Amino acid sequence: MHDHSDMPGHLARRFQQIAVAVFHAEATAAGFDLTPVQYVALAVLRHHPGIDQATLAGLIAYDRTTIGGVIDRLVQKGLLARAASPRDRRAHMLHLTEAGLATLAGIQPAVETAQRHMVAGLEPAEVTELIRLFRKAIAAHEQGHALMKPAP
Amino acid sequence: MHDHSDMPGHLARRFQQIAVAVFHAEATAAGFDLTPVQYVALAVLRHHPGIDQATLAGLIAYDRTTIGGVIDRLVQKGLLARAASPRDRRAHMLHLTEAGLATLAGIQPAVETAQRHMVAGLEPAEVTELIRLFRKAIAAHEQGHALMKPAP
Hints:
The structure is a homodimer. By secondary structure, chain A is mainly α. Chain A has a single domain, classed as Winged helix-like DNA-binding domain superfamily/Winged helix DNA-binding domain (Arc Repressor Mutant, subunit A, Orthogonal Bundle), CATH 1.10.10.10. Chain A has helices at about 10-30, 35-45, 55-60, 65-75, 100-120, 125-145; strands at about 80-85, 90-95. Chain A has a two-stranded antiparallel ribbon with strand order 1-2. In chain A, strand 1 and strand 2 form a beta hairpin. In chain A, helix 1 crosses helix 5 and helix 3 crosses helix 4 (about 65-75). Chain A is globular and about 50 Å long. The model of chain A is unreliable at about 145-150 (pLDDT under 50). Chains A and B meet through helix 1, helix 2, helix 5 and helix 6 of A and helix 1, helix 2, helix 5 and helix 6 of B.
């Protein structure tokens, strides 16, 4: 391993940059102003309405110190609403608004196009293999030890 | 594709988070305070001494607006020096200092440990395949169109 272009870490950063650029391009072309993380937050909240910020951070593996900013922006855009939790006054239950649901439905085709576009250089079987390898490598870290916490 | 955990974009973000966390842990344990991007910048400058900031940004695929901050921090740490370019007064030629060379040599074992650790859940043949798939997917974007520019 003498060249950074053979290093998994460097390649992961490059691929992640491309993934974000492709997502941004497709979302913008479809008329939506959402980042990948904002999209995933909305998608997870549709399936888990009423969860709090810490739970959402865990589900999307986003670090707790910056998830607040993601939620603030989604609330400002009118896509998300906070409601007081009956159990914990400091926690807020998060729900999609009607506009949030409409945005999620509307952006879906662009998101799926982006997912295909970011791996456009690969054969279908290679895409399946890349997804499998990602999941296996990630699972080993999540199950194995404390490194599952996102980087500072 | 109904679950974000099957999306290449989401998985790429998760894997990249793990890669950065593992790098940080190994570098810190070895007594070094370098980010992955700072490390790659030093490694590239060792092989390409005297290049300017824009060339470095291109070689490590880092966006031009933030590479300045990376270089500033490396200069502050005494690992990098800027020299005026004879051809362009606005450009600065970048060189590793003696301390930069020593840091690069000293951190190398930790970097290699980190590269192995971030894919510890995979068999050796799977690591080779992951690297091949990353390179193929990235190359398609770099060769194909304007999406090679990093995300804003």
